[in-house]
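Appendix C reproduces, verbatim, an entry submitted by the partner laboratory led by Prof. M.T., so that reviewers can inspect both the input and the predicted structure.
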Amino acid sequence: MALDGCGIACKYVLILFNIIFAVVGFAFLILGMWLRFSNETRGLFEIPSLNSSAFVTGVTILIALGSVMLIVVVFGDYGVCNEKRCALQVFSVLLALLATAEIVCGVLAYSRRYEVGLNFAQFYTSMYLLYAKNGGDPAIGVSLTFIHYMLHCCGVTGVPLMELAKQTCPKPDGIWEHLIMPNCPEVIVTIFDSKASLVMGIFIGTAALLITTLVCAITLLKQIKRVNQEITTYYSTVY
């Protein structure tokens, strides 16, 4: 009267998924909370004209997404580790909603790729201006360095000698790049426009992972139900 091999495998898959989901959720939540309440960025949220800016929207999404992911993890861990059907049912519903949201976001990102690119470019520009305004905040500098090296671009002008954040720019590949490099807002818009299929693929791939986890959760639910029925039948026969 215990879980069979398939049930045990699904249980460990769900535990591994919840660990990864918890780490990513904490990262999103901590980053979002830092950007929301940091002395360098808190002022942006107190200016009414900036309440709809890409930066404020992006930070809000980070906090909301991190919180939702941690809520999913709580139900998942409790349901899996204690084999509680009610918690697993809530976990399954949340996974289904997240998978649906991923697919919808992927399709929207593909169909409105130019607008999405402009919003991300605006988000980058907001971070760049904060970095310049606050005299080179180290935390924002790390984020800019990551973006610059990943996209091989340099600031909002693309001219290393004129850049306020030139220390975060990648090393030039040739003599010409000592004078001018691609500017990041333009690169971001171009990437979202040219790599829209890849972006949608990432969303769809994430949704497929969530659906696979959902299948494991449903399988575990059935296994727990079978075990409970066997226990009930056993005690009914004995007593």
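The helical segments are 5-37, 54-82, 85-111, 113-133, 138-151, 175-179, 184-194, 196-238. Additional entries are available on request from the coordinating office.
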